[in-house]
Amino acid sequence: MPARTVAIGSSVGLHARPAQLFVSKVQAAGMPVTIGRPGSAAVDAGSILGVMALGAKHGEEVELTADGDGADAVLDELVALLERDLDAE
Amino acid sequence: MSEHETRHGIGVSGGSASGPVVQVAPPVQPPKDEPAPADVDAALQHVLESFEAVAVELEARAATADEHAAPILTATAMMARDAGLHQGAGNRLKAGDGPATAIAAAVEEYATQFEALGGYFAERVADLRDVGARAVAAALGLPAPGVPPLTEPSVIVALDLAPADTATLDRDLAIAIVTQAGGRTSHTAILAAQRGIPAVVQVPGATEIPAGTLVAVDGDAGEVAIDPDPELLEQQRVRREKRAAALAASSGPGLTSDGHHVPLLANIGGVQDAEEAGPQDLEGVGLFRTEFVFLSATTAPTLEEQTDIYTKVFAPFEGRRVVVRTLDAGADKPLAFADLGEEENPALGRRGLRLSQALPELLDTQLKALAAAAEATGADARVMAPMVSTAEEAEWFAGHVRAAGLKKAGVMIEVPAAALRSEHVLADVDFASIGTNDLAQYTMATDRMAGELSDLLDPWQPAVIDVVAAACKGGAVHDTPVGVCGESAGDPLLALVLVGLGVASLSMAPSKVPAVRLALSLHSVDQCKELAAIARSARSAEDAHTAVRAAANPALTEIL
Asked: Which residue intervals define the domain HPr in the entry (chain A) (predicted)?
C-alpha cells in the first residue's frame, strides 16, 4: 500500500480549519486513507474528530497511507496540502 | 384602561422595543435512567438521523454566516457527520445505553481527548459539545439549545444568557432581552448595556411566554407587557422618537445647566472596548479593568507583554484621561500563577489590593508597564487600587504607584470602611472612584451574584446613597475628586443624585453616556443637591427612586 511521510506545515498544527480542509479532500478521494504518527497506530483520515484528536503540531511528522486506484496521486495531493501553512492563507 | 398583562422585573439597560418572543432553549441533559434500546439497529438509525439533522442545521447557518463564523460552522457540521463519532455512539447503544445517553457519551470521549491536547485543540471542545447538546436535543425531540437563528427583529427571552449565546447576537435583530433569572451585574446586563439593547432581568415566568407572542419591553421601568395594547405601543414609539431626538442633540462634555463640569467617562475591559470607545463623544476612561490581561494566562504576563497591551488600550485616548484599576483577582477569579489557596468566603478574602500586598512584584510589574504605555501614548494615565479599606493601604499603594513613575494614584471606594473614613483614606491620594456595585454588596451584606436578592442590591438603597455621601464628604476636606464607576453612574436619575452628593465624574458603559449627559444639562447643581436630599430622606429604595423621578425635570423623565 502506498505511503508518504510529511511534516505539518500549519503554524498552529492540524486543528479546526486545516483539519477540515484535509478531511474534505480525503472524503472526496473516495478511498480509505489513514493518518498517524510513524510507528504508531493510524486513524481514519476521513474522520475530522480522529484527525483532530491526533493533535499533530506544527513541524511534527505524520504518515499517510491510501488504498485504491490512483492512491499515489491522492497521497501526493494530500502531502502538498499538509505542507502548506493553511492557517496563514 | 390597559388590558394587557404586565410583568415587572429589573431594568438593566434602558430604552424600549417591541417584537415577537424568541425563546432560548436551555441546555438539555440525557435522562438519567434512559432505557436500553429494544432494537439497537433502529436506535442507531435514530442517532444517525439526529446527528444528520444537526449537520444540516449547522450548514444552513454557515450559508448565511459571515466570513469568520462560516468556516467554524462548516467544520462543526463536519463533526456531526463524523464516522468515528457515529461508531462510538453505536458501540454505546450495543452496550445498553439509550440514544441520548449514547450520543452524550460518544461526544464526551472525544471532548476529553481534545482537552488533554490543550491549546488550539482544546478551544474546539466548545464546538464539539455544542454538536453533542444539539444532537441530544434532536434525539429527544426537544428544541436545540441556544439562540435560534433570527429571521426578524425579535425579543430574546431566556432563563439566563450564557456568554456563548450572546457572542453572536445580531444587534439589528435582537431588539430587546428578557431573562427570568440573572441580576443587575449578570453577564446579560453587562452585555446589553454595552450594546445598548433594552433589557429586563428577573421577570417572573418569562420562559413560559410562548414563542412568537408580541411583547413590549421597557428597559427603563423594568416592565414587559404581553400582547400590548396599541396605545402602549404608540406611547413607546413616541417616547423612542423623542429619546432618539433628545439624545442625538446632546454632545460634548458633561455640564449641568449652570455650567458645572462633570466629566463623562467609559468603563472598558480590553483592547477592543478601548478601540470602540476611543472615537466616541466621551472624555476618557473612568474604569479600565485589567483582569483580562491576567485571567487566561498560565504564567505571569511579562513587562513587555503588558506594556504592549496597555499601549493599545491607551492609544485611542491620547491627551484624555484613562483611569486604570490594577489587578482585581482573588479566590473567585483565581490566577494560575498567583494562587493563594481556596477561601471560604472569597468576596471577603485576599483579593484586590490585598492580593497585591501579598504578591507586590505582580503589582510593580503592572505599574511599570502602565508607566511605559502612558509615556508612549501621551494618555493621562491615573492608577487606582481595588478593595482598599484603610488609610495605610492607600498610602502603601500610592507609594508604589509614584515609585513606578506614574503621576496620579487613587483608590477605589468599595468597602464601607473606606467611605466612612475617606477623610483619612484620601489624604495621601490624588483621586478616588466609588465602585457602586461592590459598595452595595458590602453595605447591604448581599452577594452580587445572588439574583434573587436583587432588591437588596438596588442602587437606590438609601443606605448605599448615605455611604456614597460619606465618601464625598471626606474627599471634599482635601479637595480630592471622588468619581463613580458602576451601574449607578449610568442611570440618568441616579447620576443627578450622585452629582448632588458631590461626585466629580461619572463612568459607565459608553452607550449610557448620552442619556446621562442630557440629564445633567437639564438640571443645575442646586437642583441636583435637592434631588440628593430627597433620595436620602426616603425610607426605601423604591420611595427614593419614585420621589426623585417625580421631582426631576419632565423633559428628562418623559423619555425614560
From this structure: 1-89
By residue count, chain B amounts to 560
Q: Is the separation of the CB atoms in B467 and B420 below 8 Å? A: yes
Distances (CA, A) of B95 to A13, B37, B81: 35, 10, 22
**Arch. (CATH architecture) of B258-557:** Alpha-Beta Barrel (3.20)
Question: Which amino acid type is present at position B35?
Answer: P
Alpha-carbon span A63 to B34, nearest angstrom? 42
- Given a contact cutoff of 8 angstroms between Cβ atoms, the answer to whether B356 and B412 are in contact is no
Cross-chain residue pair B75–A48, CB shorter than 8 Å: yes
pLDDT tens digit sequence for B472-512: 999 999 999 999 998 899 999 999 999 999 999 999 999 89
B151-155 long-range contacts, Cβ below 8 Å, gap at least 24?
Answer: B152/B19, B152/B20, B153/B17, B153/B19, B154/B19, B154/B20, B154/B21, B154/B22, B155/B17, B155/B18, B155/B19, B155/B20, B155/B21, B155/B22, B155/B215, B155/B217
CA distance A3 to chain B (A): 22
Interface contact flag, A19 B75, Cβ < 8 Å: yes
Q: What is the pLDDT of residues B252-281, one digit of tens each?
A: 999 999 999 999 999 998 898 899 999 999
Q: Which CATH code fits B5-24+147-244?
A: 3.50.30.10
Residue A17 banded pLDDT, cuts 50, 70, 90: confident
User: What is the rounded distance in angstroms from the CA atom of residue B384 to the CA atom of residue B323?
Assistant: 7
Ranges of residues in chain B whose predicted pLDDT is under 50: 1
**What fold, for B40-139?**
Enzyme I; Chain A, domain 2 (1.10.274)
Predicted confidence band of residue A87 (pLDDT cuts 50, 70, 90): low
Predicted ipTM of the assembly: 0.89
C-alpha cell at B374: 502612558
B72 touches chain A (CB under 8 A): yes
Find residues 391-450 of chain B whose CB sits inside 8 Å of chain A: none
Instruction: Select from B287, B256, B265 the least CA-distant residue to B506.
Output: B265
| Chain A residues lying within 8 Å of B68, measured CB to CB | none
| CATH 1.10.274.10 domain span(s) along chain B | 40-139
B332 versus A51: the higher-pLDDT residue is A51
E runs forming strands in B141-283: 154-158, 174-179, 199-201, 214-218, 223-226, 264-268
The DSSP secondary structure of B29-86, one letter per residue, reads: ---TTPPPPSSHHHHHHHHHHHHHHHHHHHHHHHHHS-TTHHHHHHHHHHHHT-HHHH
> Which residues belong to CATH 3.50.30.10 in chain B?
5-24+147-244
Q: For B83, which residue in chain A has the nearest alpha carbon?
A: A47
Distance CA B545, CA B32 (A): 48
Q: B204-226: buried (b, 16+ CB within 10 Å) or exposed (e) per residue?
A: eebbebeeeeebbbbbbebbbbb
Q: Determine which helix (DSSP H) or strand (DSSP E) holds B432, and give its type and residue range.
A: strand B431-434
| Residue A6 contacts residue A61 (beta carbons within 8 Å) | yes
**Domains, chain A, ranges and CATH?**
3-83 (3.30.1340.10)
* Cβ contacts of B298 within 8 Å, gap of 6 or more: B336, B337
